[in-house]
């Protein structure tokens, strides 16, 4: 992606924790830049000055973000259910293998996954402001581990909630319950409450939407693309205009698409090159 270095500004940095938006003050597409520290080079692409994108392992990119600068982390990491599904004799195994071929973290051992998530929580805690919010989607099977890891890094556990899909695929409907829910977990960094724009209304820990529409998939497909309506619900409730939002596992870029429409600044990271390009295309065109 950074093959054409003519357009890229290169900065040598000694201290790899930077106010990234200060590199994009001219609001130009040419504001793409490469940060080069003693042990690694990290390239960020800027779209429109208020959105910074990075293609690679989020753990490497996170170390370049200045401490206490992010207001909301809204993300959807791989649930790492690959090995578990492998051992099961169901027709979902083949489907999952086809769909999750790209997801690097989905087949890790439980131990390696916990190590990766540990670094994710450590860095997320560092970059979030005190009182900032972390909301992540997760399999119910892994929530106890997630809460334990988060507690190590000053995250105050608030809620586990449910997203209900109103029109799930009725797979194997005559032999068991049709899977129609996913869980999300909500934390505040180093405080007991954060931004919560309920505007005097009762907000339930149960969110209901239909599946992602084909209109939202017109630029390409991602196996776990979340509906924009679901993500916009959390952005409006948990952040304010001009806040800095971060999604380290952005997939097809849904968080970024919504953040930009809702006048938030956005930092998005994605490991896979194809999904990275898809998310960029969506942000520039939706
Ligand atoms: C569950 S998907 C996110 C889907 C997203 N919510 C959407 O609406 O499109 C998780 C994404 O994280 C990416 N990923 C996995 N490990 C990563 C890592 N270490 N750093 C950055 N991205 C990673 C995968 O390639 C995948 O696209």
Question: What does this entry look like structurally?
Answer:
By secondary structure, this protein is α/β, with parallel strands linked by helices. The chain has a single domain, classed as Vaccinia Virus protein VP39 (Rossmann fold). It is built from eight helices and eleven strands. The protein has an eleven-stranded mixed beta sheet. A hairpin with a 4-residue loop joins β2 (33-36) and β3. The chain is globular. The chain starts with 8 loop residues before the first strand and ends with a helix. Residues 57-58, 76, 78, 102-105, 222, 224-226, 248-249, 251-252, 254, 269-272, 275 line the site of S-adenosylmethionine.
Lateral strand order in the biggest sheet:
1-2-3-4-11-10-5-6-8-7-9
Major sheet characteristics: 11 strands, mixed
Mean pLDDT score: 87
Order of helices and strands: EEEEHEHHHEHEEEHEHEH
- The domain count comes to 1
How many extended strands? 11
- Strand content bin: 15-25%
């Amino acid at each position: 992606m950074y093959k054409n270095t003519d357009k890229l500004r290169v900065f040598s940095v000694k201290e790899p924790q930077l106010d990234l938006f200060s590199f994009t003050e001219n609001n130009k597409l040419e504001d793409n830049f490469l940060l080069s520290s003693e042990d690694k080079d990290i390239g960020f692409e800027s779209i429109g000055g208020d959105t910074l994108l990075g293609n690679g392992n989020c753990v490497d990119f996170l170390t370049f973000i200045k401490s206490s600068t992010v207001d909301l982390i809204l993300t959807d990491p791989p649930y790492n259910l690959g090995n578990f599904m492998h051992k099961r004799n169901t027709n979902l195994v083949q489907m999952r293998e086809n769909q999750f071929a790209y997801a690097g973290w989905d087949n890790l051992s439980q131990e390696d996954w916990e190590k990766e998530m540990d670094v994710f929580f450590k860095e997320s805690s560092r970059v979030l402001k005190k009182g900032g919010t972390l909301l992540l989607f997760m399999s119910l099977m892994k929530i106890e581990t997630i809460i334990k890891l988060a507690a190590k890094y000053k995250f105050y556990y608030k809620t586990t909630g449910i997203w209900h899909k109103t029109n799930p695929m009725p797979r194997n409907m005559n032999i068991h319950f049709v899977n129609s829910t996913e869980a999300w977990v909500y934390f505040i960094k180093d405080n007991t409450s954060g931004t919560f724009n309920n505007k005097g209304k009762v907000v339930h820990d149960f969110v209901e939407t239909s599946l992602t529409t084909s209109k939202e998939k017109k630029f390409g497909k991602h196996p776990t693309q979340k509906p924009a309506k679901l993500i916009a619900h959390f952005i409006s409730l948990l952040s304010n205009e001009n806040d800095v939002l971060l999604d380290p596992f952005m997939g097809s870029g849904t968080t970024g698409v919504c953040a930009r429409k809702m006048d938030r600044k956005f930092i998005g990271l994605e490991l896979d090159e194809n999904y990275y390009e898809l998310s960029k295309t969506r942000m520039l065109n939706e």
